[in-house]
Write a structure and sequence with these properties.
The complex is a heterodimer.
Chain A: E1 3-14, E2 21-33, E3 37-41, H1 48-56, E4 61-70, E5 73-74, H2 80-86, E6 88-91, E7 98-102, H3 103-112, H4 123-136, H5 142-145, E8 147-148, H6 154-168, E9 172-176, H7 184-197, E10 203-208, E11 221-226, E12 229-234, H8 236-254
Parallel strand pairs in A: 3-10, 3-11, 6-9, 9-10
Antiparallel strand pairs in A: 1-2, 1-4, 4-5, 7-8, 11-12
Chain B: H1 6-9, H2 19-34, E1 72-75, H3 76-82, H4 84-90, H5 102-109, E2 115-119, E3 129-133, E4 143-150, E5 155-162, E6 170-179, E7 184-191, E8 197-206, E9 211-218, E10 223-232, E11 238-247, E12 252-261, E13 267-276, E14 281-290, E15 297-307, E16 313-322, E17 327-337, H6 340-347, H7 353-371, H8 375-391
The chains are: A alpha/beta, B alpha/beta.
Organism (chain B): Pediococcus cellicola
Pfam family, one (chain B): SUFBD_core
InterPro entries (chain B): Fe-S_cluster_assembly_SufBD, SUF_FeS_clus_asmbl_SufBD_core, SUF_FeS_clus_asmbl_SufBD_sf, SUF_FeS_clus_asmbl_SufD, SufBD_N
């Protein structure tokens, strides 16, 4: 069993224009193991995406306090590519478009980055894996030949992120708002892909606004974030309650003084 | 060096060189005195040593090339002996007609080697011709003049590349490419010159209904000044020039790529893509020219440059010179950087920074490789591209 641990994590972001730092995360604590599904819910602007990008190692975010540990080893000094090779994966909300690189070339390079330099994956094995992954996601073969995310619709991009997840087989995957911009059919397909990689050697952290996706990917634990930290954790029922009462209800119950960006109920 | 007399200066000769040919050298030498350096916008090549005579080198005895019954492929020296009539017809009569600048004058006066390829009318080759430039002494500075002549209705694929060899100070290479009517040529140049400075001048003349598909991999390691020019002389002639370039280290490559539509209903296409690394410099001048009377023509061009270093510099200059109304002409140009977001995305899947960069470069330039239909040539193109990228580390 492997463990990803977030300890008292404080993160600031520097505004590109004003050069002022603003603290977004104010002490996040979270422990997750392989074999578990965690969901983080929370209102807009509360730092959910900051948390996922910081775990992955996006240089835009500065850790000012606390630690991120994979199997008790700190990841803070490691750049993003080393974290990825150590087993982390982030399905991004807004993946970059890169013209000139085909999906297929990219996937192969990503797989080979995890293998010894002299032992790249055999083409035959690669294609077999790719075929299987494409069929799980109802994707056609021409997706593999297209340039990376270029001209992809919102739904295609999400699928493509999960295609990478299926091919790369990480230890811990963070799925940042996988459900946003997906219709019901696409949501089911994408969830099917995630469920396919589930198992004792894989852990997931889902970031979401809605309960909707939790119908397809069942969480063991649900955490609620407000004001840059986790304010409540519970089982799947917590998500039901949020759906009924909104985030404001929980905020008032806990006596937290944060402004919810979009709802002042 | 111009203080002595013309005659005594001009010591370069092919064995048993015909008098008319020597006269051309002398005329070129006269021109050398009065012509100016060719204009390459935003490229400063004054100190490259081009157009200056290194230790004078006599041409080597020609080696017999693996010629075939279907076509002629031999050295220029040999062609002067055995195919003089053909040479008289084509030597600076079609593709190049004038010693317009100092470097072409120099290259003509001091030419010391070259290849000659001639495909007779209606010869259709299925297997490609591979040309490995160029026989001359190990330390000799190449000043070559090369021919590819496609007679009427001929069809062929030709790949010209350089095996790595002892680097020389300079290299001057002039090529004339002639496509007579209804002929078709797929031409692939894979340039991996190791000389400190190279002057490349390639001129194509394209007759009626003829079609040139031309791919150039500009992967040299030294400074390069290159002129690639296609003249659409016949009606409905077509030329596509794809030029992929990479510059590394402190090198500079300046490239003028031009297509001129002389004839009605001709189609010209220029696509250039360059990647600039380290402290290098790359300049693309794409020139689309439509001559008055060439109605119903198409002239398109695209020049794209990708900078992978803060200390690199580059230019992509599209120039359209149009003297006719009834035409379709367009251009696109961009100078871009690999942005942080893209790099982060690639690295977030485990790719190290150098590999992520390579992947981007391979994708950017490799587009042209993918369009090369012949697999063996495609592989060679990709291999040299990979070598150039490996050089980067």
């Amino acid at each position: 069993m492997e463990t990803l641990e977030i300890k008292d994590l404080h993160v600031s972001v520097k505004d590109d224009d004003t050069q002022k730092s603003k603290e977004i995360l104010t002490g996040v604590n979270l422990v997750m193991h392989t074999g578990e599904v965690h969901a983080i819910m929370g209102p807009n602007g509360t730092g959910k995406s900051t948390l996922s990008e910081t775990i992955m190692g996006n240089p835009h975010y500065q850790v000012t306090q606390g630690d991120i540990l994979l199997n008790n080893e700190s990841l803070l000094e490691k750049p993003v590519d080393a974290r990825a090779r150590a087993g982390l994966f982030l399905a991004m909300q807004y993946p970059a478009e890169i013209k000139g690189i085909t999906n297929m070339d990219f996937l192969r390079a990503a797989i080979n980055a995890r293998r010894p330099e002299k032992q790249p994956i055999a083409i035959k094995d690669f294609l077999a894996q790719l075929d299987e992954a494409l069929s799980i996601l109802n994707m056609t073969e021409d997706m593999a030949a297209r340039y990376l995310n270029e001209g992809f619709s919102g739904g295609e991009r999400k699928r493509n992120e999960i295609l990478q997840l299926l091919m790369i087989k990480p230890t811990f995957a963070i799925l940042d708002e996988l459900d946003s911009g997906l219709d019901i059919d696409a949501l089911q397909v994408v969830s099917k892909g995630v469920n396919h990689v589930m198992g004792p050697n894989f852990g997931t952290l889902m970031i979401t606004h809605y309960k909707r996706i939790l119908k397809y990917i069942h969480p063991d634990q649900v955490h609620v974030m407000m004001g840059g930290r986790i304010v409540k954790s519970g089982d799947a029922k917590l998500a039901d309650r949020l759906e009924d009462e909104g985030y404001a209800g929980l905020r008032d119950e806990l006596g937290i003084h944060v402004n919810l960006v979009d709802s002042e109920v | 060096m111009l203080k002595t007399t013309t005659e005594s200066l001009l010591t370069t000769r092919f064995p048993n060189e015909p008098a008319w040919f020597t006269d051309l050298r002398k005329q070129a030498l006269q021109k050398l005195r009065v012509t100016k350096d060719p204009r390459f916008a935003k490229v400063n090549y004054i100190n490259w040593g081009l157009g200056e005579l290194q230790a004078p080198v006599q041409p080597k005895r020609p080696i017999n090339k693996p010629s075939s019954d279907a076509y002629i492929y031999c050295s220029l020296a040999e062609a002067l002996q055995q195919h003089e009539k053909l040479l008289k017809t084509y030597f600076m009569k079609r593709a190049i007609t004038d010693w317009a600048d100092r470097l072409i004058s120099f290259s003509t006066a001091y030419m010391n080697c070259g290849n000659f390829i001639y495909l007779p009318a209606n010869t259709k080759l299925t297997a490609p011709i591979f040309v490995n430039q160029i026989e001359h002494g190990p330390h000799a500075a190449e000043v070559s003049h090369n021919f590819i002549i496609m007679d009427r209705g001929a069809q062929a694929t030709i790949c010209v590349m350089d095996e790595a060899r002892q680097p020389t100070e300079t290299k001057h290479r002039v090529s004339e490419i002639v496509l007579e009517e209804n002929s078709q040529l797929n031409l692939v140049n894979i340039d991996a010159f190791t000389s400190k400075a190279a002057y490349i001048n390639r001129q194509a003349w394209i007759g009626e209904n003829a079609k040139l598909t031309w791919t150039i991999g500009s992967f040299s390691s030294g400074n390069v000044l290159a002129e690639m020019n296609a003249e659409l002389v016949g009606r409905r002639s077509v030329a596509t020039i794809n030029n992929g370039a990479i510059t590394v280290g402190k090198q500079t490559q300046g490239m003028n790529t031009q297509v001129t539509n002389f004839a009605p209903h001709s189609i010209g296409n220029i696509r250039q893509r360059g990647v600039i690394m380290d402290q290098s410099r790359l300049v693309f001048n794409g020139i689309g020219k439509i001559i008055h009377g060439a109605h119903g023509t198409i002239a398109q061009q695209e020049n794209r440059v990708l900078m992978l270093s803060d200390q690199a510099s580059g230019d992509a200059n599209p120039i359209l010179l149009i003297d006719e109304n009834d035409v379709v002409a367009g251009h696109a140009a961009s100078v871009g950087r690999l942005d942080k977001k893209q790099l982060y995305y690639l690295m977030s899947r485990g790719l190290s920074k150098p590999i992520a960069k390579k992947l981007v470069v391979r994708g950017f330039i490799g587009t042209f490789a993918k369009e090369i239909t012949h697999s063996q040539i495609r592989k060679k193109f990709q291999d040299v591209l990979e070598r150039k990228l490996a050089h980067d580390n």
